[in-house]
Amino acid sequence: MNRQKIEAMLESNSDSYSEDYDDTDADPNWSSESEPDENIYERELLDNCNVTINTIEIIDMLVVETNRYANAKKNTAGLSRHARIRKWVDTNEQEIKLFFGIAMWMGMMKLPSIAHYWKNSKLYSCNIPKFMSRNRFEIILSMLHISDNDKAPTNDRLYKIQILIDLLVEKFNSAVIPEESVCIDESMVPYLGRLSFRQYISNKRHRYGVKIFKLCTRDFYTSKYKIYAGKEATMGDSVSCNVVMELMEPYLDFGRTLYADNWYNSIDLAEKLLQQKTHLVGTFRSNRKRNPKDVTQKKLNRGEIFAKKSDREIMVLKWRDRRDVLMISTKHSNTMEEVMAKRGIKIKPKVVIDYNRGKGYIDLTDQMGSYSSCLRRGVKWYRKVAMDIICNTSLLNAFSIYKGVTGNSKTITQFKDDIINGLIQQSNSVPEVPELYDEHKNADSKKENLSRINDLS
User: What pTM value is reported for the model?
Assistant: First the structure.
């Protein structure tokens, strides 16, 4: 076969040949459509990390109950002719997401009051008015509701908020299974109004408010969230014992270790937890019932240690540092270890070292939650608790999951930025509100018209 025939055969098959196979030595020219996007996985995880905002069940509940409450207010007799509630337009899922996005945005950028975010002054320039008017935001904030008031029982103090807490705690538990160490302590949602179960805790940053019991694990994750609504003691058990057993109920009988402070700990609690294969470690009060007096009343010099263990392996230890330190543990002995302190190496009991490490879980949770909080002074206590568990606790849990899965070094501020951007970008299908609704905008236009008239005259 001569060269001309071979070239003719190649030309006749060139179309199919070029489509099926490329024998060039150059690197393939990948099109932009087939290139893998390195950020796809991260974006999908960010979209799904926010345990609350992406939960359809919770958003639907907020939409239904907010509209129900607003329409009931709208139909109330004796309303003023100029009452803003008369112009209420039912909200929807997209607008509720936008509302929470703006609320978290306000926490990131603090101004003296809500009204300042809509001021025209250059000192308070802000892009929030591009997404929602001031009147619309304030009326949603005022009407935000979680439960049906018509079905409220007379003896349930937490009816207005409990359904939201139950739904979110269920999501928290399904997302993360706690490891071996867990910690329990109380936090405060600041509230200065009248409330029958408002509490005072002297060592908290906000001393007055609604007391929240939290069960936390490593990486500032909150697994349980319980509001203290008054005395809960039962026959034979203290309030603290009941709180611990309720919060720990799903995690008993697995060999976990609970770290708690002296308000919770007692010999009775240690025995109860041991019966369900759970250890207890924490500080201890000297006036608790069934305390070993020879330990609690022992006089020690600085650095000395004295301990006693019961036949049930419950150890009560006293260590003299700058002051007396009483500890209780069901898994430790009186061994000492060296640790690096600010002024060099220091010898401490191992139970103290482990307690400081375990108790740091909730301290870190409170510290992270205090950054850019969106909580503001208000009249309705349940609204403040709702904003706390949605915009603080749930967001921190989402951040904990995100860091645990990706190993990303992103800060909590950067993570909040991403969540807020995702929420406000979903504002395409919010309800259309009549132009007459924004009274502040009308007032500004009137001022402009008056200034033009004055200029002409």
Answer: 0.80
